[in-house]
Amino acid sequence: MASSTVTDTNKPFSVLFVCLGNICRSPAAEGVFTDLVKKRGFDSKFRIDSAGTINYHEGNQADSRMRAASKRRGIEITSISRPIKSSDFVEFDLILAMDKQNREDILEAFNRWKFRDPLPENAHKKVKLMCSYCKKHDETEVPDPYYGGPQGFEKSEVEYHLRVQRKS
């Protein structure tokens, strides 16, 4: 994936999934990826987390509709919402934004933080779009289901699950 950013071969590869509020898409991505990693016995090789570009839902569980859609597929979402922070650019090898606006917001934050915090100069290169790793889908972004009905959560969860399984 982003092997050029990994320097310690004993250090788990760390992936941070990021959406707007960290209660729908990024917790689902975290849950699905964690589930796949565990099923393959790679727990010790990865560190997986999620965050939001805003702090509005900080401290909250993932949206109940997303947790229900995931649970129907045997995936538990247990993450607690948190905003992205400057240290994420140091601690994570790959930061996956769910959509283009999330990516812009993450990069804006990096550009603000790099003047006050000691951040690696090229850390912005860790930020990628989630769908840039999709090989069998034309989507460029993971749609936000928050303001839609339950079908949006079903679609987001199913599509994300299928994307990850087909790539692995």
From TrEMBL:
Enzyme Commission number(s) from the entry: 3.1.3.2
Pfam families associated with the record: LMWPc (PF01451)
Protein name per UniProt: acid phosphatase
Active site: C19, R25, D144 (proton donor)
Organism field: Trifolium subterraneum
UniProt similarity note: Belongs to the low molecular weight phosphotyrosine protein phosphatase family.
Keywords, ordered alphabetically: Hydrolase
Main enzyme class: hydrolase
Ranges of residues in domain Phosphotyrosine protein phosphatase I: 13-168
Molecular function in Gene Ontology: acid phosphatase activity; protein tyrosine phosphatase activity
Domain of life according to the entry: Eukaryota
InterPro entries: LMW-PTP (IPR052995), Ptyr_pPase (IPR023485), Ptyr_pPase_sf (IPR036196), Tyr_phospatase_low_mol_wt (IPR017867)
